[in-house]
Amino acid sequence: QVQLVESGGGQVQPGGSLRLSCAASTTIFNIYHMAWYRQAPGKQREMVARISSSGSTNYEDSVKGRFTISRDNTKNTVYLQMNNLQPDDTAVYYCNAKLLYEYWGQGTQVTVSS
User: Fold this and answer.
1) pLDDT tens-place string over residues 76-111
2) Is the separation of the CB atoms in 33 and 26 below 8 Å?
3) How many CB atoms lie within 10 A of CB 64?
């Protein structure tokens, strides 16, 4: 199985930025499709951003232009750069890896407030 460990969450003021990291244990990280999901209180889990093994990206509409997903295959790590954060971005953010099966991290809390 693949272990995913998220880091970089925290509290930030509206308009601020955070960079989330997800470190994967697999040695074939380069062929995995990676994604970030989030779940806010009282809401369904939603995909925030994804990046394929080829580097193609896709974003949820509300974060498009503000968030950037990237990957470093030499470090087995996927990142989520979050800019101009808003209170509605408050959620637990989860890292996801998919090839034949799916794996999930434990999540990292992002809180956007004054």
Assistant:
1) 999 999 999 999 999 999 999 999 999 999 999 999
2) no
3) 10
